[in-house]
């Protein structure tokens, strides 16, 4: 009964946009009461603790669960050191916990006056270290921006059609490396490998020279499906736990030499950075919008299993920022939007499982590079500098064709609501020099 009353309370508030909290923050704060993301921080004992966030306060969900504030299933799951168990419970439980947190943080709730509980539950965000929110069993990267795929086609196949024949029929993807996904703030080392800079000479071995980013958004799996089962396009909406920012670092010179015929390998598997907070589908629901039209002639209509009867794109404003070593502040190098994606996260998930592939709680699939139609909205250095032919000029006077050692790259994301923002937190990594062999 308590869970039902909380959900009813939440249904009332979610239509008003006037939810207010006793935690003070301004309307530009990325983590207002309308957000309530999920993540994991490292506790004093070194183990992970499930958490949420409002403004500059991290909410220790382990403590609230130990005090019995949620359902029995949610209490047990939120005392685990990762979010996988909670992800497995499904959307009704996710909604219930999020609604209870909003109730506890609302202006009329008694948590404000419970100093003992507040001291246990609310921690300053800058006092904790965030870790990966889940144990990631599998990771898939898609290639779902029409603008990005077209730009790459124009660069590398200038005499042919920019898009390959299958691209408008299915979400193209490949299986990535889950073990090298790292949380924001973790430095990464420039990879080494084989390259072939001169097509007339044998390949060489050494450090990557064309270090790149890919501005992406990652989806995190909820309950999933059994081997042999399919998640239909209508079921997909309730299977996605949430979204995070994602930088799929790329070694373009290694990629060029290795990717035929089976796709990228060492050029991608060295590191991918995620933001620490997973933003829920309920927080993002007000920002659902129609994506690019599919099936308008001469484009083919997607096959029935991929046809979506609901809006599947999200209006998330995305930026990439660069800070060279020694500089005090970041400079914006790209502004794009998640709503530009041709294939939605729901179509990607359905296609991923249509052959019976099983998805498990905590699995990740990423969107692929998100590029828009204008040059400043291209989501990779490959496109922004057009293979290095148009160096990027920074306010300091520095230039970049690709990234240098010591460069820090950060992705940001925000949804602009009616009097509030939904933010994602940082997705930052600094490039360390390659190891010497």
Explain what the structure shows.
- The strands form seven sheets. Strands 6, 7, 8, 13, 14, 16, 17 and 22 form an eight-stranded mixed β-sheet that branches. Strands 9, 20, 21, 25, 26 and 27 form a six-stranded mixed β-sheet that branches. The chain has a five-stranded antiparallel β-sheet with strand order 4-3-2-1-5.
- It has 437 residues and is of the alpha+beta class.
- The protein has helices spanning 2-14, 61-66, 72-77, 84-87, 91-105, 115-121, 146-156, 233-236, 252-258, 281-284, 345-353, 381-384; strands at 39-42, 48-54, 57-60, 122-124, 130-131, 139-142, 173-175, 181-183, 188-189, 192-195, 204-207, 211-212, 215-221, 240-247, 250-251, 272-274, 279-280, 288-289, 313-314, 317-323, 331-337, 364-366, 392-393, 399-400, 408-416, 421-423, 427-432.
- The termini are far apart.
- α1 packs across α5 (91-105).
- A hairpin with a 4-residue loop joins β25 and β26.
- It has twelve helices and 27 strands.
- Mean pLDDT is 94; it is low at 1-16.
Could you name the key traits of this structure?
disordered N terminus, 437 residues, alpha+beta, six-stranded mixed sheet, 12 helices, eight-stranded mixed sheet
What's the short version?
With 437 residues, the chain is α+β, with helices and mostly antiparallel strands.
The percentage of residues in β strands lies in 15-25%
Spans of at least 5 consecutive residues with low confidence:
1-16
Enumerate how many helices there are, as a single number: 12
The helix content, as a percent range, equals: 10-25%
How is the main sheet built? 8 strands, mixed
What is the radius of gyration?
Answer: 22 Å
For the record, give the distance between the C-alpha atoms at the N and C termini, rounded to a whole number.
Answer: 64 Å
The geometry reads as: globular
Structural class by SSE content? alpha+beta
DSSP summary, beta strand count: 27
Mean pLDDT: 94
